[in-house]
Amino acid sequence: MNKPFAIAIHGGAGTILRSQMTCDIRREIESALDMAVSQGHELLRQGKSAVDAVVCAVRILEDSPHFNAGKGSVLTDKEMVEMDAAVMSGKQRQAGAVAGIRHIRNPVLLARDVMQKSEHVLLIGEGAEEFASNLGYDYTEQDYFFTDRRYEQLLAMKEQGKVALSESHYPDDHKFGTVGAVALDAEGNLAAATSTGGVTNKHYGRVGDSPIIGAGTYAENHRVAVSATGMGEVFIRCCVASDVAARMRYLQEDIHTACTSVIQGDVKMLGGEGGLIAIDQNGEIHFGINCSGMYRGCIDIHGKKQIKIYADE
Length: 313
Fold this sequence. Notes:
Order of helices and strands: EHHEEHEHHEEEEEHHHHEEEE
CATH topology: Glutamine Phosphoribosylpyrophosphate, subunit 1, domain 1
Radius of gyration: 18 Å
Oligomer: single chain
């Protein structure tokens, strides 16, 4: 008897305006989501691990300029990219994360190596990049990450003296920029991965929820894997990802009840907008959204694929 496996991904949640969504932009976004979820699922079909699948999916999204992670990352007040990422395996709850990364093309790969090739969980800034150098990672110049779209966004935010998680002239003007994936493999292992470029015009080495285990990323075998996207400070304060697991563990809530309770409960009460994706030990998938949209996709245990953008889809 074949054991179930499934995968879900997201490319950020928030205000996504239909009125500004052109056919070309939608087609490109959906194509990137489709590629990420399909290639991650193919690894699961081949018997690869849930960790392999989520890292593969997130890496593809990092390589797309349409999402705030990797290539599409937003710029800090110093016109630099600073990226964060995390990977967690539900097996023995192993985890690895990096923050403040400036010269690594795919932070999610480095996060996985922190988990698998170091005794640590979270490495930051220059230390994380020194670790990467010791492993033979290529040094990527900031020019690779620079896009006109993100520069225009930074200038607009500097004019207003604000920080933002999105841009000013696009359909996802107020979308929180994060990408992530969760998966269940045929061995029954769960995994989650999350990656982000943070917020536009950020100062002082700000880090959001994405690399914080239990806030933006969490996986626990026989329970659930979660990747979140939203107002990072609120998601940290609410311990969003681990709270979902705790509700399932202690209250015996199913994945849908637990996710809804968290994303529509404390997060919303504290003014936090965003969403999450989750998968449980049976391959049941949940997309939780308390705003107008979230770029997302999945291939469930029956092989059915879905790619969606708006909350009412």
